[in-house]
Design goal:
Length: about 55
């Protein structure tokens, strides 16, 4: 039973790492797109309208 529980914890931990890395990659790509003059995404429009920062 411990092995199954440990495997699940490992899967969750690894999944969180992958998602964090993907989020970083998407953020970098998004900034590059804006620098080229591409259209803002809906989240970026909301952030602009609400005066929110990326940290929020």
């Amino acid at each position: 039973m411990e092995t199954l529980s440990q495997n699940r914890q490992d899967v969750v931990r690894c999944s969180k790492i992958v998602l964090r890395l993907m989020n970083l990659e998407l953020r970098e790509n998004s900034n590059d797109e804006l620098a080229r003059g591409d259209v803002l995404k809906s989240v970026q429009c909301y952030m602009h309208e609400a005066g929110a920062s990326e940290e929020e």
